[in-house]
Specification:
heterodimer; A: 261 residues; alpha/beta; 8-stranded parallel beta sheet; globular; B: 255 residues; TIM Barrel; 11 helices; 8 strands; binds zinc ion
């Protein structure tokens, strides 16, 4: 079964960005993972400066250049640096090889700056991935929850928005995003808690559920298990592992003249 | 022999786990070739009638005549007359080990009762499993936020207990860095891989924890059983290493 991994990073290794991706691909090959979507640089900043955003994206561009057949780059933006972010969107997506957007925790997503980023991303047919987590232990100041993303999504019915980690507290995240048809659930980056994928498929339909691992912080195995181990049909697994992400990326890949297998 | 050192019987109170029935556990085990599973009880975390919990565990494990499920009884040393629960585990149920939940039972690892319990287990050659985490602290029910077990006092507590065989289950969420080094240095502590994360995690953790102290544990039915299975495939391990982690190390603890 084909696997496209919608959630990968290059932190946590040594070496150049290309070497780091090479190491990830060695393990990906063992696990049958075909494509990696990579975002953020070799080190993580919760509140990156404009220069750090540019640097992180430069590292991802290097990795994409080294592994063009295996890797998609997603551009890391921050609403706290709107002007730089919009410029990075032009540099890396409109005029570069990247195909989607990653937003993390610098600023809540239910804000006008994120509206501007989503608006331009949608024009470029690029999906936007927003990290979300609802922590009973307390969120970071700028950390969004699924309910924040829902408010953003209601203002952008034509955008393709991915709810990172399905809100972390996924039982609440799935409930929150259920009515919003252009919101997709990223399974990556949490524990392989049994029942997660079954609930997501039941409430959202398998078409709205995306496999992602969040390597290297997480293990491919623990994350693949969420799909392999779920009591869902083989057809649903096929969608979650690759076909859904392929479908979401097809418009922008076609614009860029990349053949989608 | 392929041994899963981290299984549970029963239901988690905050979620219906799809594979929680004994039949579902056994179906996974037969599909993946697991020959023994050391099983504790979710009820053991919450119930005060521990004797009944352990009796039900023994009964559930006995439903399969291949002895795949091996009961690991609960002992809560804060309860009156916990020594009788321990005695029944040893004498009435002939258990090979016990499973402890200090955070859910409300004691710290410098507690004298804990030390007495370890001493008793060591002298009866029981494997002791100490579970440091059941759930990601960020995901807990707001009225049931249970801190992870603080293992800081553990090395001191076990220092002079001869013959103790201790496995920390689900350790890697809360036990990291130097704390692992300190416990490895005691040469009495092993770790299961259920909560081991990171790309090719087993391959990477080998430099910190000797392979002979790593145990296959799935934390099923709370986690998808496939998680730990796939971790074995994800790391580049020699056949010897694989056999050791998959059961050789656990089997050696029972010898
Ligand atoms: Zn991530």
């Amino acid at each position: 079964m084909e696997i496209w991994d919608g959630h990968c990073h290059i932190s946590g290794f040594s070496g150049t960005p290309a070497e780091r991706v090479g190491k990830s691909l060695e393990v990906a090959d063992r696990m049958g993972v075909d494509k990696l979507c990579i975002y953020m640089g070799t080190s993580f900043q919760t509140e990156p400066t404009a220069a750090q955003l540019i640097e992180a994206n430069g590292q991802v561009l290097e990795a994409v250049a080294a592994w063009p057949d295996r890797v998609f780059g997603w551009v890391y933006l921050s609403p706290a640096h709107l002007e730089t972010s919009l410029a990075e969107l032009e540099r890396c997506v409109a005029n570069g090889p990247m195909v989607a957007i990653k937003l993390w925790v610098a600023q809540n997503c239910d804000t006008p700056e994120v509206d501007a980023i989503v608006k331009r991303s949608t024009e470029l047919k690029a999906p936007v991935f927003q990290h979300t987590w609802r922590k009973i232990t307390g969120n970071l100041p700028g950390e969004s929850m699924a309910v924040d993303l829902v408010r953003l999504a209601r203002r952008h019915p034509d955008a393709t928005l991915i709810c990172g980690h399905t809100g972390g507290d996924w039982e609440q995240g799935i409930r929150a995003i259920q009515p919003i048809k252009n919101l997709y659930a990223d399974l990556g980056g949490g524990d392989p808690t049994a029942g997660f994928t079954e609930m997501a498929v039941r409430e959202l339909g398998a078409e709205r559920v995306l496999f992602g691992s969040d390597i290297p912080g997480r293990s491919f195995g623990s994350q693949i298990a969420k799909v392999e181990g779920a009591r869902i049909t083989e057809a649903e697994k096929t969608l979650i592992f690759a076909q859904n992400l392929k479908r979401l990326l097809t418009p922008i890949l076609e614009l860029k003249g990349v053949a989608v297998g | 022999m392929f041994i899963d050192t981290n299984a549970y019987i029963g239901q988690w109170p905050f979620r219906t786990l799809p594979d929680a029935s004994v039949d579902a556990l056994l179906a996974n085990y037969s599909h993946f070739g697991v020959e023994r599973a050391w099983a504790g009880s979710f009820d053991g975390l919450f119930h005060k009638d521990v004797a009944a919990v352990n009796a039900r565990l023994v009964e559930a494990c006995a439903t399969n005549d291949n002895y795949i499920l091996q009961p690991f009884g609960t002992v809560n040393p804060t309860l009156p007359n916990w020594e009788e629960d321990f005695r029944r585990c040893v004498e009435d149920h002939a258990m090979q080990g016990i499973r402890l939940h200090p955070n859910y039972h409300g004691y710290l690892l410098d507690d004298d009762r804990f030390k007495a319990l370890l001493q008793a287990a060591a002298s009866h050659k029981l494997v002791v499993q100490l579970v440091t985490t059941m759930e990601d602290e960020r995901m807990m029910h707001p009225l049931m936020q249970v801190p992870h077990v603080d293992v800081t006092p553990l090395a001191d507590a076990i220092g002079d207990i001869d013959g103790l065989q201790l496995i920390l289950l689900n350790a890697f969420r809360a036990v990291r860095g130097k704390a692992i080094d300190t416990l490895v240095a005691t040469e009495k502590v092993g770790f299961d891989i259920a909560w081991l994360e990171g790309i090719a995690g087993i391959e990477r953790v080998r430099s910190q924890i000797p392979v002979e102290r790593l145990h296959f544990g799935s934390y099923t039915p709370f986690f998808y059983f496939q998680s730990s299975m796939l971790k074995l495939k994800e790391s580049d391990l020699s056949t010897e290493e694989l056999n050791a982690i998959q059961g050789g190390n656990a089997e050696a603890l029972l010898a």
